[in-house]
Amino acid sequence: MRFLVTNDDGISSIFLHALVRALRDAGHELFVVAPKSEQSWIGAAKSRHRPVQAVAADQALGCPTWIVDGTPSDAVNIAVGHLLPRGLELDAVLSGINIGLNASLGFIIASGTIGGAWEGALHGFPAIAFSQDMTPELFDRFKAEGVPDPALRATLEVSAWHAAQLAPALARATLPRSFIVHNVNFPLPCLPETSVCRTVPARVVVPGLFTPAADDGTHRLIFRLGDDLSPPELMTDRAALNAGQISHTVLDFKRLGA
Asked: Could you tell me which residues come within 8 angstroms of residue 241 by beta carbon, excluding any fewer than 6 positions away?
């Protein structure tokens, strides 16, 4: 199949590269467009008040690759409108693999990874967002060191393999112009035999994400998972991850206001 791949962690993300390798090894034709730098928690934002530059770049990914100094939504919009070959028919837009989960109402709307996939859905394509769960401690260590430890690398490779198996089936099952984003979250650890569970977003509220004002009057973001208010009978994305399963949530934006 033919996929456009983006992310919100930036073009140099090891997690993006793992996804591209797995898709390429599965025989798919790929085009990669990704932000120049990390754009986490930026949602579906577009760069309205400044010009955005897109440049072709050799990232040793084995496919046409562009770097955009904007958001994931910028990247997908510019790629579809101006970078991809004229007349090219895409099968889906894929986004990820994100460094950290994108599960629950408290995180889905804010996610740049999902924002990049949503931009694909806005262009009428099937769209899939992939994210990798990890503990806050593991996330902080990875961010500090810049490379995954052996256990995380092993999970990442398996998660990317799962993504390469899931992407074609989800793309074929999604009609064009359906305004659907498939939100897939991989557990930690993720194994070849890990099963996929159909889920709904956990009802998580995330208050108090900023510190009190410092002496200079500024507030800084602090990460927290929020408070899960989900009824116990719901199979939520958070519950599936906690049970060691791959969470698959269908975000059907046609149902808004239903």
From this structure: 101, 103, 133, 185, 187, 247
Q: Considering the chain, what is the average pLDDT of its residues? A: 96
User: What is the spatial distance between Cα 129 and Cα 72, in angstroms, rounded to a whole number?
Assistant: 12
Q: What type of residue is 256? A: L
What pLDDT, on a 0 to 100 scale, did the predictor assign at position 146?
87
Sign (positive or negative) of CA dihedral 89, 180, 241, 198:
negative
List for the chain the helix, strand, coil content (%; round to 5): 30, 25, 45
Q: What is the mean pLDDT of residues 89-103?
A: 97
Domains belonging to the chain, first-starting first, are 2-201+232-255 (3.40.1210.10)
Tens digits of residue pLDDT in 100-127: 999 999 999 999 999 999 999 999 999 9
Q: What is the DSSP string of 93-146?
A: EEEEEEEB---SHHHHTT-HHHHHHHHHHHTT--EEEEEE---HHHHHHHHHHS
Residues 33, 90 contacting (CB under 8 angstroms): no
Specify the residue for token string 């085009």.
31
Q: Does position 258 have pLDDT exceeding 90, yes or no?
A: no
Query: Length of the chain in residues, anyone?
Result: 258
Q: Please tell me the predicted confidence (pLDDT) of residue 199.
A: 98
Q: 28: which 2 tokens? A: 């798919």
Instruction: Tell me what the mean pLDDT of segment 158-181 comes to.
Output: 98
* Percent of the chain with pLDDT strictly greater than 70: 100
Angle at 79 between CA 64 and CA 201, to 5 degrees: 105
3-state SS, residue 253: helix
What's phi and psi for 36, nearest 5 deg?
A: -65, -35
